[in-house]
Amino acid sequence: MATLSVTEDCEQLRKAFAGWGTNEGLIISILAHRNAAQIKSIRQTYAQTYGEDLLKDLNKELSNDFERVVLLWTLDPAERDAFLANEATKRWTSSNQVLVEIACTRTSQQLLLAKQAYHARFKRSLEEDVAYHTSGDFRKLLVPLVGTYRYEGEEVNMTLAKSEAKILHEKISEKAYNHEDVIRILATRSKAQINATLNHYKNEFGNDINKDLKTDPKDEFLAILRATVKCLTRPEKYFEKVLRLAINKRGTDEGALTRVVTTRAEIDMKIIKEEYHKRNSVTLDHAIGKDTTGDYEKMLLALIGHGDA
Amino acid sequence: MDPPNDFEALTKAFSGFGVDEDSMVSILGKWHSEHLESFRKRTPKFFLEDERLFERWDDHHIACLTKEFLRFKDIVVQWIMHPWERDARLVHEAISKGPQAYGLLIEIACTRSSEELLGARKAYQSLFDQSIEDVASRLEGIERKLLVALVSSYRYEGLRVNEGIARSEAMTLAIAVKNVDKKNPIEDDAIVRILTTRSKLHLKAVVKYYKEIYGKNIDEDLDTLMSLKETLQCLCNPQAYFSKVLNNAFKDDADENTKEALTRVIMTRSNVDMKEIIEEFDKQYKVPLTQKIEDVALGNYKDFLVSLIRRVA
After folding, report:
1. Pfam families attached here (chain B) (predicted)?
2. Is A112 exposed, middle or buried (0-12, 13-18, 19+ CB in 10 A)?
């Protein structure tokens, strides 16, 4: 039984598509201010009332960046991750980062739901597509990363942290970045354990592990390893950097901007905004306002203000 | 009282899977110390003449007997246990036993459904505060890559199969098999990828295309590569795999690990495909499974096994 407000939302959205052109403002004012559970309700009621999938109607009516941000936002979080992951497997190496992001910044449960959504939508498993579309060192790292069901407890084994910090340091010094121990530690250990290991790494060997992994700034595998470490240990800093690079690029990398905003709006956007402000002396709102326009800008701003409502 | 027959009967009550509780009670209940002494003196299989002039029970045999008495307890406890916990405990045991038990890891990773395997991974975390893949990645030997990937799999279970890809993957397998002298297929990235990520239906299609293109069953070509052969068999034809495991348990020279399979298979497949396994066993070994169990199992253990099988037969 749909609540009055859900029914109203559906009517308004339907109206937004009616006639010539589309009332994007109306779409933003509704969708940007609903959370995932509410959007799910709206989609169900819309389908029951009008016999069509809201997403299909959005697809038909909207274009480009604005469409994409609305579409991604309207998808259920698990479907969204499945959609982004599938897209990433089809592109080339620069999209490996998206896979790392999904595999490492989601909780074990969220990643599992994404994999189930992937089965349902693409009739294959995420693991088989990642394995099929990657090769060499990237496959060696990415398949275990997406396949893992990480333990999420807080317990830490300090002896193990010390010995694994040593192993990591050894392999990195030998430039054996793709060594199976390096991959094993990053892909299977709990986040708490990895944090302890890397803290010990810094105390014992003097540098942050990512500093030691920066020996060749052009090496793409090293870049992915650094991203893996950052996603596992400091996701808010990782996302701040992605946003910063996306906005400062000549033109803007709308893909990355849209992706981070829609996937983190309900999770940790507040912290990411603080991190952004700290790092860049301007607010994220300001930076987005300067670099984007129109309905795309309006939707993004509404979404990053989402948690504050 | 008929000493020679009773001695034989008592010996028999100890000699099989489980123990014949009823016979023991009825025979031993009647015996006095002279009968016991006589039994000990006349049964060199169990009792050794000690230098200090008494008949001493062979330690090894006491250990075996303990296992046989416990077989009933094991099957009762495991039967009641949640399947996730059961599988998690089996995996934990297999990992601690080392390479001889890796077949068990393959069995669990490949014959359970995606949700059952995931459940086992969850239970493992609850029971042992680590993830299975974490522990598995510290296994020894060249099978490690395969095993870790197998226990981490979360396979698609729908009906869609891409026939074109299945066909080309059959060819990939053939190439790896042909190059076995240069590189063990188990270390071939493509082989591991195909076996550990593709859906079971897809793999069945791969096997079908292999036969079509090369005229042979792939397991003939994998004969020397046991882990790969078992992996494929568990994924594509679990009934044949389980029927073979059961038959091995019945062999005279079977060790304890092999014998434990009798409990494990009946229990874990009872609600899944026991009927098909019984048919396969019959076809392969020309003797009904229930018959075989009646021959080698004893007492409460036997009764429990038979009742589990009768439910589906």
Report:
1. Annexin
2. middle
Tokens of B296: 């080698």
- Give the integer Cα–Cα distance in Å for A297 and A261: 11
What residue type is assigned to position B156 of the chain? Y
Q: Under CATH, domain A234-304 is a member of which superfamily?
A: Annexin (1.10.220.10)
Tell me the C-alpha to C-alpha distance, in Å, between residue A222 and each of A93, A137, A141, A227: 12, 10, 11, 9
Residues B217-238, buried b or exposed e (16+ Cβ, 10 A)? Answer: ebbebbeebebbbbbbbbbbbb
Domain A155-215 - what CATH class?
mainly alpha
**Domain spans, chain A:** 6-62, 155-215, 234-304
Q: What is the ipTM metric for this complex? A: 0.81
Identify all chain A residues contacting B138, using CB atoms and an 8 Å cutoff.
184
The fold of A6-62 is Annexin V; domain 1 (1.10.220)
Give the residue from B145, B158, B141 showing the smallest Cα distance to B193: B145
Question: Which residues of chain A are within 8 Å of residue B129 when distances are taken between CB atoms?
Answer: 151, 153, 155
Q: Residue B198's closest chain A neighbor by CA?
A: A128
- Cα B124-B125-B130 angle, rounded to 5 deg: 105
